[in-house]
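stage 2 :: seqdesign
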């Protein structure tokens, strides 16, 4: 690596990538008193940004990465806001030769955490710091205060802490929604879990909307009012708030929502969450159902054919089979399950990678700025503060009591959905998970007996200590040789 001669005045931070998120973060940093040098592969975009939205701000455009490096004070801080995957590595290939030991590169995109692990190691061999920082909050959050989840080279945190916390959202207690997560890819892993929970939250909202609309026959104005009321209570959250606004929106006198094709897209972070859960054996069943529900929605043509072939009608929910109180309780209880599963996966990966992750701190970082920001994240933070070794959020008294009070309405919600033919996979899977984890005995004994019957996989016994394995010659002709016990 060779040093590049500096020009004055020096910038405090460089930013690469001027799509909407990059532009908004640059303006956010400038408003907080930092001088920002910006670079985009397409020079015209840089010029348009500096002369347009950034006019009059402490933002300077440059035409090359070399010029960017020359503008930065030491140690250099460079934030990458480019498309995840190979584009990040391509920028690093060009950028690394321009940097000096001790400089910091921050990836603010939605990179896979394994890629971040690799990049931390790669830059470390060059004496450079690499940070994978999940950024959540969309365009508005980037401009005025997102939730930022940084992790990677520990030596980078003292260098980037001030600026990242300065541009982050503030929770009601004044705490910045940005704190150090841990080593390696931990920051991007936490952002991935955030996005997985986001998938679950949106699916739960979609299902309750479907139950209101098709099951209860409610109009959009009435539904909007219900969501507004819910947002004033324990379900207060950004997603509930904007659901009310979406339901109330009209074009040419008709609800805008009815004009939107029912095929949901996805960018992969939900799938990554499920893949990680499968690899670690953690049952994030609600998030998985949310991912698959999007996949089913994308089968638009197939669904039209099936509706014509086997009937696509639904039966209305009659009388007092289901109330809005039931739906509110089911939504709250299912959200608790989703977050509980997400935090289980976070803890499992932290144990796997030896990350010293503070789950309460993560909940605190999500209280403002991010897409899943919600009032009950303060309850989650408080639950982990009271018991740092809490095994499951379902065991925290505040959530255990709330679910106990909601469970009957939760069951009526799932029953009504099944009876009316309205799919509710997120609510159903959440309730099934709740019933499973509170069952002292499950029918897995039969599964293990079947495995032992056809594959001699052995089993443990209820009347013997854990860790002792047995095999039965079920048919009388299979012999006594067992295949051995293992979990894969």
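stage 2 :: out
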């Amino acid at each position: 690596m060779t040093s590049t001669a500096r020009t004055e005045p020096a910038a405090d931070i460089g930013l690469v990538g001027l799509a909407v998120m990059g532009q908004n973060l640059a303006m956010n940093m400038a408003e907080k008193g930092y001088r920002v040098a910006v670079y985009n592969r397409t020079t015209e975009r840089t010029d348009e940004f500096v002369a347009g939205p950034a006019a009059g701000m402490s933002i300077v455009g440059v035409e090359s990465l070399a010029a960017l490096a020359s503008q930065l004070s030491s140690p250099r801080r460079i934030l990458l806001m480019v498309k995840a995957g190979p584009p990040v590595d391509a920028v690093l290939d060009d950028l690394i030769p321009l940097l000096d030991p001790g400089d910091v590169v921050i990836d603010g995109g939605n990179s896979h955490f394994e890629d971040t692990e690799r990049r931390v190691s790669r830059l470390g061999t060059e004496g450079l710091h690499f940070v994978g920082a999940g950024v959540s909050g969309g365009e508005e959050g980037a401009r005025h205060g997102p939730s930022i989840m940084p992790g990677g080279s520990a030596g980078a945190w003292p260098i980037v802490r001030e600026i990242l916390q300065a541009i982050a959202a503030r929770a009601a207690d004044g705490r910045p929604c940005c704190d150090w997560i841990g080593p390696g890819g931990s920051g991007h892993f936490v952002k991935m879990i955030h996005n997985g929970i986001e998938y679950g939250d949106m699916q739960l909202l979609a299902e309750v909307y479907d139950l209101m609309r098709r099951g209860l026959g409610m109009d959009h104005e009435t539904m909007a009012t219900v969501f507004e009321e819910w947002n004033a209570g324990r379900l207060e959250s950004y997603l509930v708030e904007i659901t009310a606004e979406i339901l109330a929106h009209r074009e040419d006198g008709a609800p805008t929502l009815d004009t939107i094709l029912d095929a949901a897209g996805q960018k992969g972070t939900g799938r990554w969450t499920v893949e990680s859960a499968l690899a670690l054996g953690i049952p994030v069943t609600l998030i998985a159902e949310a991912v698959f529900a999007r996949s089913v929605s994308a089968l638009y043509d197939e669904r039209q054919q099936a509706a014509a072939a086997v009937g696509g009608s639904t039966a209305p929910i009659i009388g007092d089979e289901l109330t809005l109180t039931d739906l509110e309780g089911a939504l709250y209880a299912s959200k608790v399950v989703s977050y509980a599963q997400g935090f289980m996966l976070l803890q499992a990966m932290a144990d796997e990678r030896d990350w010293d992750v503070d789950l309460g701190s993560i909940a605190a970082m999500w209280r403002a700025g991010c897409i899943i920001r919600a009032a009950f994240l303060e309850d989650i933070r408080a639950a982990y503060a009271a018991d740092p070794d809490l095994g499951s959020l379902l065991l925290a008294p505040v959530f255990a009591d709330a679910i106990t009070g909601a469970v009957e309405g939760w069951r009526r919600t799932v029953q009504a959905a099944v009876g009316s033919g309205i799919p509710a996979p997120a609510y159903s899977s959440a309730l099934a998970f709740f019933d499973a984890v509170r069952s002292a005995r499950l029918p897995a004994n039969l599964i293990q007996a079947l495995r032992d019957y056809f594959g001699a996989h052995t089993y443990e016994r209820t009347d013997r200590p854990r860790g002792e394995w047995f095999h039965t010659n079920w048919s009388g002709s299979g012999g006594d040789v067992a295949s051995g016990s293992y979990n894969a």
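stage 3 :: structure notes
- Residues 1-6 have pLDDT under 50 and may be disordered.
- Strands lie at 13-16, 36-39, 59-61, 77-80, 104-107, 129-136, 147-152, 250-251, 254-255.
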